[in-house]
Amino acid sequence: TVFESEVVGAILALSSIPSLPHIKHIFLGLDNQSAIRALHRPRQQPAQYLLLAFHDELNRLMNRIPNLTLHIGWVPGHVDFPPNERVDAEAKFAAENDNPPHPLLPALLLSPLPRSIAATKAAFQAQTTA
After folding, report:
1. Coiled coil located at which positions (predicted)?
2. Roughly what angle, to the nearest 10 degrees, separates helices 2-16 and 33-40?
3. Considering only CA atoms, which of 120, 111, 127, 108 is closest in space to residue 55?
4. pLDDT value at 51 more than 80
């Protein structure tokens, strides 16, 4: 789902920070308000394992860079906002190409993620409608 993709993107963003040790302040911009709320206030919900993985990655990062500040905020999606357009292009490229896993990729993301109930329902709905 889009929600799950946004959370995975947030996990990937955090996992890339250790390669930039001079970074002290991070603005993580997402164009999905549900994902932003869930990352701020994780609770029992679908894709909770991804939210827990995000917070595990954040804890590892904060232990490595103790004075790091992180702000998660909304950015407009699909409205000619250059940073978001670039991320969308990179995500599309990654989805369409069979690239070997990056060596710093979190272990959770080294194998296919389980298919969510929401994604299964959406696929069934699309097949039924077609």
Report:
1. none
2. 60
3. 108
4. yes
Q: How many helices (H) and strands (E) does the chain have?
A: 5, 2
Q: Is 30 helix (H, G, I), strand (E, B) or coil?
A: strand
The crossing angle, in degrees rounded to 10, of helices 48-64 and 2-16 is: 10
Q: Could you give the CA distance from residue 54 to residue 33 in angstroms, rounded to a whole number? A: 16
Biggest distance spanned by C-alpha atoms of the chain = 52
- 65 in the Ramachandran plot: left (φ > 0), alpha (ψ -120 to 50) or beta? beta
Q: How far is CA 22 from the centre of its chain?
A: 22
Q: How far is CA 94 from CA 1, 101, 120, in A?
A: 16, 10, 22
